[in-house]
Structure formats: C-alpha cells, structure tokens
Amino acid sequence: MDEKVPVSYSDPERLIAYAPSSTHPSPRPSYPPSPNSSRLSASIRSYGWNPALFAVDRNGRLPPPRPILTHWRTKKWVVIGITILVFVAVAGIVAGITVGVLERRHTSLAASTPNEVSSSFNASNNMPPPTPLPVPPTQEKSPQPQFNSTIDDAIITGLQVAEAFNQHASWIWNAGGADVSAPSGSVVFSKTLPMGKANATTALVLLAADDHCQLYNNGKMVANKTSLWSRVNLLNVPLDPGPNMFAVNATNSHGGNPAGLRVSALITYADNSTDMMWSNETWRAFQPPPEGFAMQNIDDTDWEDAIVLGGSIWAGRLVMPTNFTTTDTTT
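Request: output the structure for the sequence above.
Response:
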C-alpha cells in the first residue's frame, strides 16, 4: 500500500519551491505513476503547470526544498556584493570625518590673527616664539608739488600744436618742385580761420619759412620772421571777435634754392573750446603779392590753391622750440 503524500497538493507556493531550476534540473520520472503521483499531477495541472517539470518519486513525494546559497557560484557573488557595500560605507564614513576635521581647522585659522597662528604653530612644534618685527614710525607724506595751471596749460597746448606741425602740416608753395629749386621772390598765402560756437580769442602758431616771412591777421602784421629758415618760431597771436584770416608773405631770397612755408595753429575760443588748423592744399597762393593781400575783403578769384611739396629736403633740419611757456612776437 502506498504511503500518504506528506504535502498539501493545494499549496502552490509549496509546489513552486520544488520546481526545477537551470542549475538543478530534475529529470522526468521513468517509472509508472502511482495513484499518489497522479493526484499530485492533477493538483499541479489545476494551477496551469506542467507536472513533468516536477521531480517526484513513485509515491508522489517531493524532494526537500533547496537552500538558496547551496551553490558555490551564488555564494561567491553574494560575498562580493556584501564586501563592496561594506567598503563603500566605510569610505563614506572616513571621508565625512576628514571633511569635518578640515572645516573646523579652517574655521579656527580664519578666526585667529597671524600672531595667534604663529604661536600655535610654534607651540605644537616646540619652537620659541618669534621676535616681533619693529613697527616703523608713521611717516608723513611729503606734500605734492604745486604746479602753475597757466604754465601747465601752455605746455599742453604747445605740445598739441607741435604734434600738428610734425604730423599734419605740409610744406607748401605756389608751384611744384619748389622743394628742389625755386626762383627768388615773394609768394603770399591766405587762410580763413575756422569759426567756433564762441568768438575766437587767441591762436598759438608754429611758423617755418625758407627763407623768411611775415604773418598777418586781418591786415595787421603780428610777426616778422627774419631768422634762419631752419628755426621754427612759436607765436601767440591775438584774434578778433569776428572772422579771422591769416595771410603770410613768404620770400625766397636766393634763386635756385628750395622755398617753402609750413604752419600749424591751435585756436582757442571764449568757451575754452579749441580747434586746429595747418598748412595744406586748402590754402590760397598768389605771386607777386597784390596790394591789400592781407585784408579780409581781398578778391582772391585769381589766386590758386597751394601746392603741397615733398619736404624731404627739410626733414631733420628744423629747430623746434624748447620752451612752450614763452612765445616770439617779432623775430
């Protein structure tokens, strides 16, 4: 008589525990099924499972449940996973403790003065405290030199007009080739000064001529240059409230020698604004000098535009003013 089956066939979880796995396959029984096994198979089928997947004996007994950690491969990976988790946890704890210590150390150093930090370092290293450096006596600042604003302004404007003379002003004459050879005689030039929003007051002028010249403003001679052609004269010319016109009577004393005129001027207005002008092709020229050439109402219909010369013959041979605080009147 067959033994009773010691399991409940109505418990699906119990049946699942005895299901075969890929690592522990259960062979299909080769013996005829017993009544008990038939009842077990019927119970298994009632749950929609295949009875052939369950290893039972001819009495319908199921094998004992297999523990999860019975296989050596499963044990190995479980141990590795636990080891990794422990290592990560320990590393996080150590990092947290280290960061906390460093933050407390930084806070204490920031709150301490340099002398306290030095004393703490020396005490921890058994070193004698350093000798404090002597505090230098408080030195009063020497007073800054006071400059005369008028002199400073004169120097600044002088440098500005000199820059215009060197970089923008051109040598001009009434005919081309005069920088190589020109006939003797006088040529007159004229230029109307620009008008500002306010009346013009003065003009700081740099003037050079080969050989010499006279400068007029509104018909009045303001400078007579009779010095060497190589000397550049600095002139402070008073201007009229209304329009102003410069006229220059330049003379070449030696026929066959170079001839030319070069001018720059810084014009100052009543509102302290300034304007710059210099010799170029916009100046008007005429030879010989007509009567009344320096007057504003002169008819310059027959006059021609000035010719810009190369100027290489005069390069490096001019003597510029060295003191912009004093100007020439008549030279």
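Residues 67 and 176 are 118 Å apart (CA to CA).
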